[in-house]
Amino acid sequence: xxxxxxxxATSKWPALGSLALGVMMVGIGMLLVHGRGTVxxxxxxVGVLAVMALWFRDVVNESRSGLYDAQMDRSxxxxxxxxxFSEVMFFAAFFxxxxxxxxxxxxxxxxxxTKGATALLWPEFTAHWPLLSxxxxxxxxxxxxxxxxxxxxxxxxxxxxxxxxxxxxHEALKEGHRKVCRxxxxxxxxxxxxxxxxxxxxxxxxxxxxxxxxxxxxYGATFFILTGFHGLHVIIxxxxxxxxxxxxxxxxxxxxxxxxxxxxxxxxxxxxVVWVGLFIFVYVF
Length: 285
What we know:
Protein name: cytochrome-c oxidase
Subcellular location: Cell membrane; Membrane
Enzyme class: translocase
Radius of gyration: 23 Å
Main location: membrane
Family: Belongs to the cytochrome c oxidase subunit 3 family.
CATH topology of the largest domain: Four Helix Bundle (Hemerythrin (Met), subunit A)
């Protein structure tokens, strides 16, 4: 501690985390190019998870030791805010790709707009979204698409409900009602697990009965990129909330100092908002 500004001790975790992430990326590259590299990916993934667990352990211990002050709290808040902003830009890129295809590329292939001459490539193609019949006959489109009012609607209700239960848990923590917070947070974790399970069922149905695959034209590609990355974020968010639940049970937080819990709430609410956008633009319209 130097005056009122906390100077963190030298840490090996950033270097080890970068190394583990690099190994995982090399493995993924090997899988994409050569069709093998699963062991390398697994080693890198285990390394990333281990570094995250040990690094977060150190941060928790530093916080519990009273090393952090108001300045550090502001630093954490700014850091989490910029992280969520980067996640917003991440999903904005994929939503942008979806909107570009639907608003510009597809009408051009159908003969509309300033670049409608591209319709000469496939004169018999009819532009319609969802794209069940891609213009190139060598690409098989999906047989059908999901009704938004079945599994997607159920998952929407689950995630919206989870935001409500998490907010109740947060308010209970701020009021010092630890047991109430624990119970509502446990309910949030359960809802997250339900969402993940239902999405797994949906993916099985997509491949087994609907013909929606990554090779099913632009519809299949955008569907799995958007819902897949969102599902990954739900899995990560659920794990984070599980850690918060354990910390609540160990009495780590106080009504005044609980930014770890608050940051996890920000992340979960962000994931929920992204799903609402997915439900509207991927399933409904």
